[in-house]
Amino acid sequence: MNIYERAIGLATTPEYSRWICPLLLLAEVFLCALIVWKIPYTEIDWSTYMQQVSLFLSGERDYALIKGSTGPLVYPAVHVYIYSVLYRICDEGRDIAFAQVVFAILYIATLVIVMWSYRSARAPPYLFPLLVLSKRLHSVFLLRLFNDAVATFFLWAAILMLQRRQWTAGVVLWSMGVGVKMTLLLIAPAVAVIVVLGAGIIKATGLGITALLLQVLLAVPFLQENPSSYMLRAFEFTRQFLFKWTVNWRFVGEDTFTSQSFALALLAVHASILALFFVYRWIGPSNASFTQFIRKAVHGKLPPTQGYSAPAPCTINFSRIFHGQRLFFSGSLDSTRCLFICFGPRRNGLGTSIQAQR
């Protein structure tokens, strides 16, 4: 074997990933420390988060009256609870350096979960260095302290649990992520498909109800005060995003971007892509008709493998990022790299996974 073939083998053989992950994590610890030490914190939403949770901690429970310098509170209850804890341990939000350390720990923990998920899906070693090269993700976690960081942690923890066929834990963690940021609702189709395949329609329905009840339970203090304001703020499906926050669609112009027809067109394209993925990538490789596939899935006779449970949510996440009116950070951590697991060179993860189920 020549040097070139050996290098290719090292880069593409999943078994070698066990050596590269600890080295990358160690490097990330030092890099995070360097970023926090040397690069100035960027104020965007942190002060607003702190102003909002200070009102909550003062006894305010009406979402219509909880506001900050950049606007009203527009995130669900779990966001409020988590940032209330940060408010208390970070000297009412003034100790930003300590908050950055907390988010650095959260970033490393999220990265550990993502790498674990990738290894479970037998990702090739060449993908792992790509996980730590994102300037934007370091900024989101360490310099801006966005709630996207918390939502991302819950999303990947849910994916890992679904890979390990811990259906209840996976659904609960996903629901907690929704409680941080509503955009994770867009992952619901993938979560539903995975749980139905693995547990059957009856248990999946029960878990869906559990996820809904968890949202209600967490929001009880706000629902008791003013249920309509909570629902309209935390789950505002008609929210109009500002043109200045878009990245993908800046070329269309502000008038087009803010039009309802453009928003509906993006939603239609997103739904169409999900339908194509469902037919050709989620069930297509099983060589079963749609009716046969559904019949087996209803009885939980197609338990998804670990190589299926990660790429399925990632395909939805990639589509929502690409077609979203604004740039979504939550869950963006390595969704595109994840797609290489199933669509990259010498790989067909979803097809292999479903074939194995048969």
Automatic annotation (TrEMBL):
Pfam family, any one? ALG3
Q: Which organism is it from?
A: Ajellomyces capsulatus (strain H143) (Darling's disease fungus)
- Highest taxon in the source lineage: Eukaryota
The name this protein carries in UniProt is: Dol-P-Man:Man(5)GlcNAc(2)-PP-Dol alpha-1,3-mannosyltransferase
Supply the EC number(s): 2.4.1.258
One GO cellular-component annotation of the UniProt record comes to: endoplasmic reticulum membrane
- UniProt-listed InterPro entries: Glycosyltransferase_ALG3
Chain segments annotated as transmembrane: 20-40, 97-118, 138-159, 171-195, 201-223, 262-283
Which family does the similarity line name? Belongs to the glycosyltransferase ALG3 family.
Q: How does it sit in the membrane?
A: Multi-pass membrane protein
Main function: Dol-P-Man:Man(5)GlcNAc(2)-PP-Dol alpha-1,3-mannosyltransferase that operates in the biosynthetic pathway of dolichol-linked oligosaccharides, the glycan precursors employed in protein asparagine (N)-glycosylation. The assembly of dolichol-linked oligosaccharides begins on the cytosolic side of the endoplasmic reticulum membrane and finishes in its lumen. The sequential addition of sugars to dolichol pyrophosphate produces dolichol-linked oligosaccharides containing fourteen sugars, including two GlcNAcs, nine mannoses and three glucoses.
Q: Which UniProt keywords apply?
A: Endoplasmic reticulum, Glycosyltransferase, Membrane, Transferase, Transmembrane, Transmembrane helix
Q: Which reaction does it catalyse?
A: an alpha-D-Man-(1->2)-alpha-D-Man-(1->2)-alpha-D-Man-(1->3)-[alpha-D-Man-(1->6)]-beta-D-Man-(1->4)-beta-D-GlcNAc-(1->4)-alpha-D-GlcNAc-diphospho-di-trans,poly-cis-dolichol + a di-trans,poly-cis-dolichyl beta-D-mannosyl phosphate = an alpha-D-Man-(1->2)-alpha-D-Man-(1->2)-alpha-D-Man-(1->3)-[alpha-D-Man-(1->3)-alpha-D-Man-(1->6)]-beta-D-Man-(1->4)-beta-D-GlcNAc-(1->4)-alpha-D-GlcNAc-diphospho-di-trans,poly-cis-dolichol + a di-trans,poly-cis-dolichyl phosphate + H(+)
Question: What pathway is this protein said to act in by its record?
Answer: Protein modification; protein glycosylation
Gene Ontology terms, MF aspect? dol-P-Man:Man(5)GlcNAc(2)-PP-Dol alpha-1,3-mannosyltransferase activity
Compartments where found: Endoplasmic reticulum membrane
